[in-house]
């Protein structure tokens, strides 16, 4: 992408998301840990990646709202509490991996009602597909769920984080001896 096109694209991006980036509530996500970085950094990365994807699709003649994609990307993880706190809830389907999309959507309507619409709502609510079983309805939503997975790939580079992400505590992991089973499985795979 040429410098001029990139500058124009970033200007366009900022015009869509300025109220979110300037909001104190959104800035608070700088202190929410998200695997290797903050929820703020993660959301910005997802939003920009999805926005650039959408731009490429638009250039190919595919109809997509870049504005919806930019906003949904920033708000897809706009949940109220850092996920490690939430993972203390003992109910399995209340664990962060299953519940935070609905929490983020509710919060997005609370703080940015003027920016929300049904497509952004769908993108936020369904970004955890396939963990949340309902698949995204619109192209914008698919852009968010894909970008989120690409940006979140670092989680899969640290497999010990995964059980906690879906809500299995450190203590349960120790009780189940997850590490032993992991090494056993690795040994078996080497034998095949
Ligand atoms: Fe998420
Ligand atoms: Fe995310």
Structure description:
- The protein is mostly helical and 192 residues long.
- It folds into 2 domains: 3-156, Hypothetical protein af1432 (Orthogonal Bundle), CATH 1.10.3210; 159-192, no CATH class.
- It is 66% helix and 2% strand.
- The protein contains 12 helices and 2 strands.
- The chain has helices at residues 3-21, 24-27, 39-59, 66-75, 83-86, 96-111, 118-125, 139-151, 153-157, 161-165, 170-176, 178-191; strands spanning 33-34, 37-38.
- The chain has a two-stranded antiparallel ribbon with strand order 1-2.
- It is globular.
- It starts with a helix and ends with a helix.
- The mean pLDDT is 83.
- The chain binds fe (ii) ion (2 copies).
What is the gist of this entry?
Helix content is 66%, strand content 2%. The protein has helices at 3-21, 24-27, 39-59, 66-75, 83-86, 96-111, 118-125, 139-151, 153-157, 161-165, 170-176, 178-191, and strands at residues 33-34, 37-38.
Small molecules bound: fe (ii) ion
Shape descriptor: globular
In the CATH scheme, the class of the largest domain would be: Mainly Alpha
CATH topology of the largest domain: Hypothetical protein af1432
Largest sheet descriptor: 2 strands, antiparallel
Helix-strand makeup class: mainly alpha
Question: What is the mean predicted local confidence, pLDDT?
Answer: 83
Strand content: under 5%
Overall helicity: 55-70%
Number of strands: 2
Number of structural units classed as domains: 2
CATH architectural arrangement of the largest domain:
Orthogonal Bundle
Strand order of the largest sheet: 1-2
State the CATH superfamily name of the largest domain. Hypothetical protein af1432
Note poorly predicted spans: none
Alpha-carbon Rg, integer: 18 Å
**Quaternary structure classification:** single chain
């Amino acid at each position: 992408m040429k410098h001029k096109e990139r500058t124009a694209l970033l200007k366009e991006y900022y015009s869509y998301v300025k109220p979110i980036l300037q909001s104190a509530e959104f800035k608070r996500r700088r202190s929410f840990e998200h695997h290797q970085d903050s929820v703020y950094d993660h959301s910005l990365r997802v939003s920009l990646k999805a926005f650039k994807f959408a731009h490429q699709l638009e250039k190919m003649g595919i109809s997509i709202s870049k504005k919806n994609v930019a906003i949904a990307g920033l708000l897809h993880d706009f949940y109220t509490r850092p996920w490690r706190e939430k993972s203390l809830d003992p109910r399995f389907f209340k664990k962060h991996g299953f519940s935070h999309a609905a929490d983020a959507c509710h919060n997005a309507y609370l703080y940015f009602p003027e920016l929300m619409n049904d497509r952004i709502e769908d993108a936020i609510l369904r970004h955890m597909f396939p963990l949340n079983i309902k698949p995204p309805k619109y192209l914008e939503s698919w852009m968010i769920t894909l970008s989120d997975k690409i940006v979140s790939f670092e989680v899969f580079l640290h497999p010990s984080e995964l059980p906690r992400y879906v809500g299995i505590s450190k203590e349960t992991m120790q009780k189940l001896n997850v590490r032993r089973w992991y090494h056993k499985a690795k040994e078996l795979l080497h034998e095949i």
